[in-house]
């Protein structure tokens, strides 16, 4: 049976896939709780969602701020119990221009892993007593195989994918669904800086529709597009030495 969501929280909603998810979810009777770090873009997204009939609360927040995230989530849940929380906020970085620095790697993990924890755990704590709700974490097809051009990004996305899969089993008996979202290349401000070919590049609006459909079906992993998924899956089962040699020939991400 397909699930419906009346109260949805999305982090990283000021641009890219987060923005597309907010707009795709917006409609009459829907309450959206949106966070992002850019006030101008976030407020513009919030207004577009209101124009579509949604009740929207937007807050400029950094997912690395554990206390602020917990406070916002608790306040939202007290006003209208959260049905769905999407930990979407994330950053990327590459190895172009001298390799990946210690600072870059740590920042990527802080946002992509710790930021996810700061988002989903306060929500899970609120969902547990009522034995209802769903959380989703934004992973990537890069989680299936470490890419030399983006080491910390690949590892951070693998971390949250594995964590989501494990949490799903741990929370199933409590009525809480957990999904890992694994997109391929999606057009966004993050991918606009890439100077290399991006096979099966997908519009953010189409990607958002695929994701929301998968979440309504409470799927464990929402991986797309299928051709890219199978290509990366093949890489993941090749002998490690061969896979590294093949991937090392790819252009570095800026």
Please provide a written account of the structure:
It is a single chain. The chain has 254 residues and is of the alpha/beta class. Helices cover 48% and strands 15% of the residues. The protein contains nine helices and seven strands. The protein has a seven-stranded parallel beta sheet, sandwiched between helices. Helix 4 links the parallel strand 4 and strand 5. The longest helix has 26 residues. It is globular. It starts with 6 loop residues before the first strand and ends in a 7-residue tail after the last helix. The mean pLDDT is 90.
What order do the strands of the largest sheet run in, or round the barrel if closed?
3-2-1-4-5-6-7
Total beta-strand segments: 7
Separation of termini? 43 Å
In percent, how helical is the residue content?
A: 40-55%
Structural class: alpha/beta
| Rounded average pLDDT | 90
Unreliable residue runs:
none
Question: Could you say which overall geometry the principal axes of the C-alpha atoms support?
Answer: globular
Q: Which key terms come to mind for this protein?
A:
single chain, 15% strand, 254 residues
Topology:
Blueprint: E1 7-10, H1 16-25, E2 31-36, H2 39-51, E3 55-60, H3 66-79, E4 84-87, H4 102-127, E5 133-138, H5 151-171, E6 176-183, H6 189-192, H7 204-216, E7 221-224, H8 226-237, H9 240-247
């Amino acid at each position: 049976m397909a699930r419906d969501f009346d109260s949805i929280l999305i982090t990283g909603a000021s641009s890219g896939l987060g923005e597309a998810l907010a707009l795709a979810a917006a409609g009459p009777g829907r309450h959206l709780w949106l966070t992002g770090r850019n006030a101008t873009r976030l407020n513009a997204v919030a207004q577009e969602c209101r124009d579509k009939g949604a009740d929207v609360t937007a807050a400029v927040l950094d997912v690395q701020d554990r206390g602020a995230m917990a406070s916002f989530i608790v306040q939202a849940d007290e006003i209208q119990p959260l049905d769905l929380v999407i930990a979407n906020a994330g950053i990327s970085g590459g190895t172009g221009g001298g390799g990946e620095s210690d600072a870059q790697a740590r920042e990527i993990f802080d946002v992509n892993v710790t930021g996810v924890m700061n988002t989903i755990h306060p929500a899970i704590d609120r969902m547990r007593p009522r034995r209802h709700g769903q959380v989703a974490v934004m992973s990537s097809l890069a989680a299936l195989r470490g890419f030399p051009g983006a080491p910390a990004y690949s590892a951070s996305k693998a971390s949250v994918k594995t964590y989501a899969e494990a949490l799903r089993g741990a929370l199933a008996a409590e009525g809480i669904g957990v999904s890992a979202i694994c997109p391929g290349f999606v057009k966004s401000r993050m991918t606009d800086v890439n100077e290399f070919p991006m096979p099966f590049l997908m519009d953010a609006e189409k990607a958002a529709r695929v994701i929301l459909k998968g979440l309504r079906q409470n799927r464990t992993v929402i991986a797309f597009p299928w051709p890219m998924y199978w290509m990366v899956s093949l890489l993941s089962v090749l002998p490690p030495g061969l896979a590294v040699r093949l991937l090392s020939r790819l252009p570095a991400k800026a």
